[in-house]
Each structure stands twice: as structure tokens, then as C-alpha cells.
Amino acid sequence: MIPASTAVAPPRRAWVEHVMGLPVSIHVRGAGAYDDRVEPAVAAAFATVRAMDRVFSTWQDGSDVMRLRRGEVDLADCDPLVPESVRLGAEAARTTGGAFTTLLPADGELLFDPTGLVKGWAVDRATVPLLELPGVSFCVNAGGDLVVGAHPDLPDDGPDAVVWRIGIEDPRDRTRVAATLPVTRGAVATSGTAARGAHLYDPAADRMVARSGSTTVHGPTLLWADVWATALFVGDAGTRERFVRDAPAYRAFDLPG
Amino acid sequence: MRRIVLWAMSTLTALVLLFSYQTSHGTSQSTATSSAIQHLNDSSQTTGGSSSGTSGTSGSTAGGTTATYTGDSQMTPYGPVQVQITVKGGQITRSEVLQVPWSGGHDQMINSHAVPILNQETVQAQSSSIDMVSGATYTSQGYIGSLQSAIDQAQL
Known about the structure:
The complex is a heterodimer. In chain A, 29% of the residues lie in helices and 30% in strands. Chain A has helices at residues 38-56, 64-69, 81-95, 115-126, 222-234, 237-246; strands spanning 12-19, 22-29, 103-106, 109-112, 137-142, 145-150, 164-170, 173-183, 186-192, 201-202, 207-208, 214-219, 251-255. In chain A, a hairpin with a 2-residue loop joins strand 3 and strand 4 (109-112). In chain A, helix 4 runs antiparallel to helix 5. Chain A is globular and about 55 Å long. By secondary structure, chain B is an alpha+beta fold. Chain B is built from 5 helices and 6 strands. Chain B has helices at 2-13, 27-46, 120-125, 140-143, 147-155; strands at residues 54-61, 64-71, 74-76, 79-88, 91-99, 132-134. In chain B, strands 1, 2, 3, 4 and 5 form a 5-stranded antiparallel beta sheet that branches. In chain B, strand 3 and strand 4 form a beta hairpin. The radius of gyration of chain B is 17 Å and the shape is globular. Classes of the chains: A alpha+beta, B alpha+beta. Chain B: Residues 1-25 form the signal peptide. Chain B: Residues 32-73 are annotated as: Disordered. Chain B: This is FMN-binding protein.
């Protein structure tokens, strides 16, 4: 077997834009990386994330979600993505046994805040134009949660597979990597409090989570990998039982804080 | 006593964790696993060639000597880990995690497709071989100086 380090690295390009208050990095690798179709597909991917941000941002007063919160518009008047987010939020709450919620405390009450699922959902949708690029494998990373994808012609393994070595941050020292995960297709989401302090909400206890460490989930979509990473991080043994039973395509591990 | 100290050291340096998803096996996994296992193997050799760290079998083939080593089960912060490697002609040709932990005790989560949790020193030495970083969500502010930022800069 030839170690990856001695193989000739395929061509690689990267873009970074800041959307949703997050750095969004798109990297492409493979024989098709310098094809003329790559640049427009990457632009389309960023445009998808920006469009989702305009609809869902809780930081912009003019977003559909903020206008909905203030009662200025009905759900039916919003972008069709908004009622879909309500449906997804309800499904996520049901699937995780309530460990994930889109009702978050704000201004002393619980308000609809789909932020926790919008990022993963936006990145999943952003991958659509990238999947059409022949000979291209890509990774879209939005603030530490990412999706790896590849053109259907590229294999999952063997010498022609493009494998991304995903480093999982050490929650005790964020300048270091505590794990590496080789991925050819699929999403990787990590939830923890290392980056932003206690920003994750535990609906069962009705309080922000203060525990340390992190939970990483790997599976087909970032929407559900991210939902489960949050739910497993804030949830209890019952949440883990649900995960094992109801999300067989996903795998998870914890890192100690 | 010396053996206990070495044991503790190899526990620190040979954290190996599991993973099992269909896309997580492939050539690169073998490479990454090899790194972790090689380190584990080195740790075992540190014990002075006694059988305290490993048990092994060996035989000869046309391609050179083939040997299988089974590491002792070691306690890690994640639970007990046990690794078996096959070395042929001086190169690790196969590795298998025989016993892997899941912090919630859900052993059914784990199957034979293992992914190594490399020890920190190894990972830092190999940080140039990490393609992307996953971690607790960081904002644009936190991005500056992050590992992902360094990786992006190297590619832009």
C-alpha cells in the first residue's frame, strides 16, 4: 500500500466567505478542480447560504424569521423555506425526544429560533451545484460543521477516492486536533461549548449547558448530524438510546473537556 | 513499577477511538490507522521487547516476514481499547480494533471499521496532513488564528 503522503496530491483550490456570522470555507480537490464550471458552482453554493441567511437570520431585523416573531407577517407570507423549517424543527424535537428544540429563550420567553438547524440545512443545500462537477471532490465547512461530497463518478474507496482527513478539535485546547476522521462522503458536526461558552440550550432542564467536552456526529446530511450533535451534547442517556435506535446511518463520539 | 509507568505512558500516547460509518473506511483510513498503530507499536517496543505490551505470532512469506501483534487492552478516557496489527516486510498491512469504547456504554455503536484518535503529539506533528477541521461552532471572530484558517490560507 502506498501511504497517502507519498501519493501526488490532486489539484486543490479554496474559497472563504463570511456568512451568517460564520466563516464558510469551500475547498475543491480532484482532476476537475480547475475546470471552468467550478467557479460558478462555488459562487452558487455561497449564494445559497447567503439567501438562507437573509430568510432566517436572527441578527437582521428584516429577515422573515424576525418579522414572523414580531407578528408582522404570517407563516404563509414568509419564504416557503420558513414553514419547512417549522416542520423540520418539530421533526427534530420529536426525533431527539425533545433534546433538540427550535424554541429558544430570548427576552424572557421561548421564541422560534431555527438557527440550530438552518446552518446544516443551508450547507446541505449549498452542496447541490458542487455535486455536478465532474472529477471534483469538495468540502464545505461552516464554522466547524462540514459536508464532504464528490461527483457520483468518484469512488468511495480505492486509489481514485479523494479522502478528506477531518481533524476534530481538542475541546481542551482548540489549537490542537484530538482526532482525525477520514471522510470521502458525508457530514461531520461537532457540538461543544469550547468556542462560544454556554451557548447550547437544554430544553429538559430549561437552562444553558455548562458542561465541557464535545460531541461529534458523522452521517449522510449535515442537517441531521448537527441536530444530533447538539441533542447528544445536551441530552441524557435516553437521547443516546434514541440516537442508536433511530439514526442508524449516523455515528457519534465524545471528546472529554 | 517501571512497567506500570510505561503502561501509563502508552495509554497517554495511544488513544485509539472507533468510528463506523460506511464512508469512513478507505485508503486514507489505513494510513491514519497505521500512524496510530505504529505509535502504539513503538510504545510496546519501549517496554524492552518483553511480552508485556503485546502478544504476537509470526511467519514467513515470499514478501517477507509477517507478524500479528495484539496490544494489551488499555484504559483510555473513552474506555478500554485493544488493537491488533499485521506487519509484513516491516510495513503495517492491516490493523483491526478488537475492543473499542463508547462513552455512553453503547457497544453496539461500534463495528470493525475503526478510526484512530491519534495522540495529540502525533496529530500536531501531522497537522499539515489535516484537510479540514470540525469543532465547536466558531464565529467569524474566532476564525482568526484557528486551525481551519491556517488550512484555508495554505490553499488560497
